Amino acid sequence: MSVLTPRQDPEMHLLNMAQQIAYSTDGGYTFTKYANNPVISINSTQFRDPKVIWYPLTQQWVMVVAYAQEFTIGFYTSPNLTTWTHASNFSRYGLLGLQYECPNLVQMPMLSNISIENPLEDSNFASTDMFILYISINPGAPLGGSIGQYFPGTFNGTHFTPVDQAARIADFGKDNYATQFFYGIPATSPQISIAWASNWQYAQVVPTGQLEGFRSVMSLPRNNVLANTTRGDYTLVSLPYDLSPLYSSTSSLANSTSLANSSLLYDYSSTVPSGAVTFNMTVENIPLANASGTANFTFLSSVTGESVRGGFYFGGDTPFWIDRGYIRGFENPFFTDKFSTNNLINTDTQAFRLQVVIDRSILEVFLDNGLRSATTTFFAEGMLDTLLISTRELNPGVQVSAEVFGLNSAWAPLADSNGTIAGNITTSNQRVRRNMMGHIRL
Q1: CA 370, CA 218: separation in Å to the nearest integer?
Q2: Does this model's pTM top 0.70?
Q3: Percentages helix, strand, coil for the chain, rounded to the nearest 5?
Q4: CB atoms closer than 10 angstroms to residue 21
């Protein structure tokens, strides 16, 4: 079943936005529109982005949908997906910007302890009835353009009640928008999401190949849970979905257990054909007072000298930063090149953990088991093929370890002998094909 907002439907003489449904009998390859569409219409040009869940306590379907420029999320209920009743509104919370878009209502499990090395262990989940209402706004993000925000709270089947009116930003980069949560995940398990990795300030003008005909990518799928942290209750924790099935080898390509005030340099130009790499770094025994030093990383091109870099200061207000300003393939006044956040040292563990994932044109970072995350795209003239991890001026006794893994292409197993991947899209009765570089072949 699909629930959707067509802007216009000439067959129904519908010129405004309204909610329709369609059904599939072949597993989602093709859909047939419901004969009595639309199922909800309010005669508005700014009424869109429905998301539907089943609420078992009332045995009803629940839809959240955006009254975009009224800064309102409407809640509707239905016993059968065809007849809907308006139940309540959630209006003017958090960042408003120009409009609300792409709402999601998700029951979210809570962690008992965010500080352990593997927080997503089954035994670390606490019983909870917490939900989050996730709302995207565009424009109006603190960095400009589009961004997502979330509100933790409770839901009784008709009304959502937030724990407070704070605007919690889900990503401290600039390229994470319209996050969608997969339906059907048990409420006691981490909820899985994926986002559009771009920003409306420049999404329509970023580079694309002459044969490609498309722009933008999606973020990594992420596991999401709530956790209480030092400075904030009900923080949304986001970590990449398990990447180990994509590892290019069973062991790390490079590693070090003695990286304090030292560096690790790895050239992956000949060992990782996909150009996708992930690394994990752990810094331990950080003093709680008078901590000093930095931990930095740089992905660079050995051909053009371009780079994407980032790092963490262990002193002061412990800021973490990302810089994509050394990439030369795209210039735009809105393509902000530097981002930062603060990330307090955990007083229980006295440790800092960092996971970084890079693909050919996207970087994603996750701090301290996903307490902070950022998504940033970049468009290099030369392929990034070398990784440098380094630490400097750390306090005596601080220990640092890191390991680097290559990631296989998710497309490669689908390719034929010519490197072409067949899609299921048809245009003028012709099958569209893309090779492993994304180029279209008919």
Answers
A1: 18
A2: yes
A3: 5, 45, 50
A4: 22
